Please model this.
Amino acid sequence: MIPASTRQQNAAAWQREIAEAVRDPAELFECLGLDPGTLPGARAAAGDFPLRVPRGYLARMRAGDPADPLLAQVLPQCAERVTTAGFGPDPVGDRNAMMRPGVLHKYHGRVLLVTTGACAVHCRYCFRREFPYSEANARAGEWHAALAYIAGAPDVGEVILSGGDPLSLGDAALDDLIGRIEAIAHVETLRIHSRLPVVVPARVTAALCERLAASRLRCVVVLHANHANEIDETVDQACRRLQAAGATLLNQAVLLRGVNDSAASQVALARRLFACGVLPYYLHLLDPVRGAAHFEVPSHEARGLLAEVASRLPGYLLPRLVREEPGGPGKTPIPHDWDAATLQPVAPDAGAHGRRRGPDTP
Model:
């Protein structure tokens, strides 16, 4: 039994780290020794979508390097304010999939609960950066309608906790929510999508692990790491605590220009994850959210990249390259493009299996 005082100290540590996150672009520039000439643009972009980065995550960045792959994920930039055709506020059709406040039901057999709008870190490519949390969030006092919907859908065997970040909720709130989900007999699996074990590993408290271990539900925790440099010893330890609690650990990454758009970075990420007991799950093409177009890697480049990665890794370490399309029955898989990987000339149109045909192909 963990003493109550220790539980409170553990909770206070991660909550304090979130509360003390860097929110002023000027402080971020000062901490990392960045060129102040780009500060006005960062301030302007942060006015549209606020900066937030925990100091422990910031400490993993290379000082003085504007191209650091961790910095690129959180640094507000002028490029975010450029209007780009096809990039909008609801890139994956969340609003049309909302059955009740906070309940997204897109795919057969599983539903997603938007548990909170809070996140420990504000990723600049976030596909929910304009999500209407104030009107669509199933807050603590509104769980009845959300859970009643799930209880009335007997085909739903899996509930996915998302946000924001569901681990931004305290242990007591999560305990209450998980208990309510456990009371729905036909739900068998609880899936938690969270960036917190990566950016604030102290969030993986003894109380959280004990609750997951005690659940009758099969627990899956899907992390969000995009680069091997994000995973230090503290993240490794957090993953091992979750494993010891019986959780299955997967990783979901987003393919981002200037962050992880090379075979070397993808291979390093997969190997680093596996060393922590985490299996790569999805590698997402960028969701076309307004303000993130500068991160986009075209699908033909992504297909060639994944084919090169596939030539260097065993199959169980290869994430599935996917995109999410509004109204689709599931994630849309993007097949490997071996021609692109071997630098063979190919035309941009796709064949029956997603492989592009060269101009001289009969």
Remarks:
- Residues 4-19 form the longest helix (16 residues).
- Strands lie at 98-100, 103-107, 110-114, 158-162, 189-194, 218-223, 248-254, 279-284, 320-323, 332-333.
- The two ends are 70 Å apart (CA to CA).
- Confidence is low (pLDDT under 50) at residues 343-362.
